[in-house]
Amino acid sequence: MYNIGIYLYALCAHIASIFSKKIRMMIEGxxxxxxxxxxxxxxxxxxxxxxxxxxxxxxQGRPLMERLRKQNPEYKILLTFFSPSGYEVRKNYEGADxxxxxxxxxxxNVHRFIKHAHPEIAIFIKYEFWTNYLTRxxxxxxxxxxxxxxxxxxxxxxxxxxxxxxxxxxxxxxxxNEQSQTLLAEHGITNxxxxxxxxxxxxxxxxxxxxDLPLVEQFADGAPCFIAGSSWGPDEEIYIPYFANHKDWRxxxxxxxxxDVHLKSIEKLLEANGQTYVRYTDIESGAAxxxxxxxxxxxxxxxxxxxxxxxxxxxxxxxxxxxxxxVPEAAVYGIPxxxxxxxKKFKEAQDLKACGxxxxxxxxxxxxxxxDHFIAxxxxxxxxxxAAGQYINGNAGAAEKCFNAIF
Length: 407
Hints:
The chain has 20 helices and 14 strands. By secondary structure, it is of the alpha/beta class.
C-alpha cells in the first residue's frame, strides 16, 4: 500500500508541475540526481549523507556538517533536499561536497540512489521518514540516525492505521524533548537520547559571525528599533499602525516574501498611516539616504540574522498562517520575541513563552498591550530579553552531543 501511495504521489506531483514552477523545479532537479552522484562520488569515497526536507532542516543539520568537515575531513559529505526552497537557496553550499534533490521514495529510485551514493552513515534531519530509503539503508548496514526530531501522538506513525516501520530502522534517534522520548518508548522504540535542538547551536554560530551593518546603524541613529522578521501581511496590518503613533521608535521590516507586490503592499500601508520609508537596496545604491525615515524595508536576502542585533524587540512572522518562522534567530541576541497564535508546534516558542522570553499576540489590542508594557517599563523589557538570551545559551550543545555520539 505504501508503494502504491508513493507512485500516486509522484504522479500527482508530475501533473501539478504543469501548473507550478516550484514543483516543476523539484521534478527536473530529481532527474539530475543520479547524474550528479555518478559524477561526484567515486567507489572508494567514504560518504556521510545528510538529508533535509528544506531550508529550516538544513540549518539544523549544518552544525553537524561543519563539525564533520573540520574534524573528519576524510569523509565526503552528501547533502540532499526534497524541497526547492531548500535546494535552490543552498545548492552552492560550500560545506558539502555533493548536493542534489532526493528522488521520490519508489523502490527503483531508492535502489539507484543508494547504489551510487553508497553512504557509510546517513543522517535524516527532524521530519523526513521515507520508508523505502530507510529500510534499504538499514538492510545494507548503513548507520542511520535521526537528529533534532520531535514526535507527537497525532503523527501517522502512532495511529491505528499507521506504521512504526520507518522509525524502527534507525540505529539511534536524537530527539528534542522528553515527550518525544516517552512517546517512542510507549511504542517499543527505546534507542533514543534527548539532546535538544541543533538549531540553537546554529543561531549561536550565526550570532558570533554576525556582520556589522553601518546602513542599519545610520538608519536607527540611536533610536530603539523594532525588528519585524519574516513578516506577512496579517502581521503587518497589526504592527505598522502601532508605530505610526510611536515614531520615537524605528521600524525595520524584513518580509518573508520579497516580491514587488508584497513590498508595495507594505509601502501602501505605511503611507496610509503617515509613515515614511526607505528600501535597503536604495540606500546601498546611493539612491536614498539611510536616516530620516520612519521605516527601513529590507528588500534583500541574507541580512536578517545580523539585523536582529540592532533590535530592542523582535517580531517573528507566520503566526497567522502556516506557522511561525525562526524564533531562536532573534532570541539569541537577548531581546524579547513576539509572534502570532500559530506557534504551538514550535518547541522553542513554547519554552521561551514559559521562561518569559517570548510573547504571543492575537490582534492589534494584544500587540499594543505588549509593546506599551515594554516601552513603559524598561526593566521588564530588559528582563524579558535576558530570559530569551539565557534560554538559547543554556540549551545549546545538541550538535556537539550528536556529533560525539555518531562520530
